Amino acid sequence: MSDLEHNLLADMLQWYRLQRHDFLNHWQVVMGNLQLQQPEKAFAYMRELIRPHEEQKISQIPVPVLSALLLGWVIRLGQMDVVTTLDYPEEMKLEDFWRDHWRGEYGEGLSGYTRECLKLSEGYKGFSDLSSEVYLFDEPEGFSCQFILENEEKVLIDKTVRFTRELSE
């Protein structure tokens, strides 16, 4: 197992613990509302919880290392109170697409890129209404990733990285 895979596995276990903790907290809110005879509040809370999240989009990408890196990135941004959206072309949901567009060494590069973007984002702690957008784009024999961090007033970070066979050789 590579260092990257080991780190991703450790992250996944940590996210599982965090998700379980959050689930139990959400369950307590629902139960509290029901005990207070406020079923409409309980249902509204549950509806908000089950709305689609970016994590569901990420799970549709069939490359485990890429999915794990994106998931960790979105979770860490969320921990910084940054609301994140993810967008990518429909063909990126297909295994056939990634046969021509993914190479193992892209994982290390993307890991470094996400860490760098997170570090830059930390410089904006305390700013209100932070949001980010992550875009994946099709490139010949690869892909690119763009990260935009903004608040209501302006774009704070706009950083793009490309991963192609041409660049990795």
- Measure the end-to-end span: 23 Å
Determine the structural class based on helices, strands and strand pairing.
alpha+beta
Radius of gyration over C-alpha positions, nearest whole angstrom: 18 Å
Q: Would you report the number of β strands?
A: 4
Question: What secondary-structure arrangement, pairings included, does this model have?
Answer:
Elements: H1 3-35, H2 39-50, H3 54-58, H4 64-79, E1 83-87, H5 95-101, H6 106-122, E2 131-139, E3 142-150, E4 155-164, H7 165-168
Parallel strand pairs: 1-2
Antiparallel strand pairs: 2-3, 3-4
Helix pairs in contact: 1-2, 1-4, 4-6
Structure report:
The protein has 169 residues and is an alpha+beta fold. The protein has 2 domains: 1-51; 53-168, Heat Shock Protein 90, CATH 3.30.565. Helix content is 56%, strand content 20%. The chain has helices at residues 3-35, 39-50, 54-58, 64-79, 95-101, 106-122, 165-168; strands at residues 83-87, 131-139, 142-150, 155-164. Strands 1-2-3-4 form a 4-stranded mixed sheet. β3 and β4 form a beta hairpin. The radius of gyration is 18 Å and the shape is globular.
Main features:
Heat Shock Protein 90; alpha+beta; globular; 4 strands; 56% helix; 169 residues; single chain; four-stranded mixed β-sheet
